[in-house]
Amino acid sequence: MRVVVEADGGSRGNPGTAGYGAVVLDADTGELLAERMGALGVTTNNVAEYRGLIAGLTAAAELGADEVEVRMDSKLVVEQMSGRWQIKHPGLRPLAAQAADLVRRFKSVKFNWIPRERNKRADALANRAMDGKPAPEEPASAAVATAARADSPAASAQSWAPPAGPATRLILVRHGETEYTARRLYSGRGEAQLTPRGLAQARAVASRVGPVAAVVTSHLSRCARTAELIAQAAGGVPVRVEPDLVECDFGKWEGLTFAEVNERWPEEMQAWLASPAVAPPGGESFDEVAVRVSRAVQRLREAYAGERVAVVTHVSPIKLVLREALDAGPGFLYRCYLDPAGMSTVDYWPDGGIAVRGVNETAHLADTG
């Protein structure tokens, strides 16, 4: 199936209120197959353009397309995705990587620059998003196109049919309590040992996880110690360190409270809360974390296909795994609460199906104080 993706993004101010839009068209007939749009809070024009591209490619994959022509009026995005320009801005690299991962799903993808007047449909959707208006109704042809490609991975992921093959189950465990956790401090790449209560929580979740093929962990000691206890309870299964599961780098905010950060960096804090593409000063954005966490999940699905695996990590990586599994928006990151030593479970099937079995289960912590 050959499609055309027209994508755009914009911001009113740079950075400013931003949004993106994308349409997917049948390459042979020009029929509208899908429309995508979204508000991004406060971010830059280039970030919005990349988000439009990602939305368009995602929609094309969901429709089962195998050949894609991307048309954008952003010279920067077209040249960078074509490999002719370097991606110098660190905030754009994770978005370009996410787009490149999507490109690899298709048989072929071609990028073409078009003048703005020929990109009116995507531009109108981006402005609609910035205005806070609802998305237009999905074209009826989109459902027909998806049904016609029901054998595609994207289609089977949305199917009510029973999944094929054994699932790979990832049991996502947040580490036990640390001093930073108890004091509600930003705790990213710095070392923070488990408190006595945290050790009790780690032992409790270890007794709850059950049999697993392996335990995979962030290298930081609060996770490594929790992982060690889970591995022992599971009969001495191997423990594997996965660097991409490390917590978000909070930069200059490390070790501070929310109130302290909001007092010293009020504008940066508001921008960070408004968009996952924004990083704390000297730190890492949630979009950047999402790219590496998605990489890690894919490696685990390949290495432990059809098995149960305990994954011991931090708040941000777990939220990002759950957000992707639930196909949720950016707001999920701020509305999902995860307790120390809480447990969440996600199943992945070979046909692309995903099911979230549980989020932040804590019954095992009842006796830990």
TrEMBL record:
Q: Name one GO cellular component term.
A: cytoplasm
Molecular function GO labels: nucleic acid binding; phosphatase activity; RNA-DNA hybrid ribonuclease activity
The annotated active site, in chain numbering, is 175 (tele-phosphohistidine intermediate), 247 (proton donor/acceptor), 247 (proton donor/acceptor)
Region Disordered, residue ranges: 129-149
- Top-level taxon of the source organism: Bacteria
- Which InterPro entries does this UniProt record tie to the protein? His_Pase_superF_clade-1, His_PPase_superfam, PGM_Phosphatase, RNaseH-like_sf, RNaseH/PGlycerate_mutase, RNaseH_domain, RNaseH_sf
Which residues does the UniProt record annotate as the domain RNase H type-1? 1-131
The residue ranges flagged as biased composition, category Low complexity, are: 138-149
Sequence positions that bind substrate: 222
- What is the protein named? Putative phosphoglycerate mutase
In its UniProt entry, the species of origin is given as: Planosporangium flavigriseum
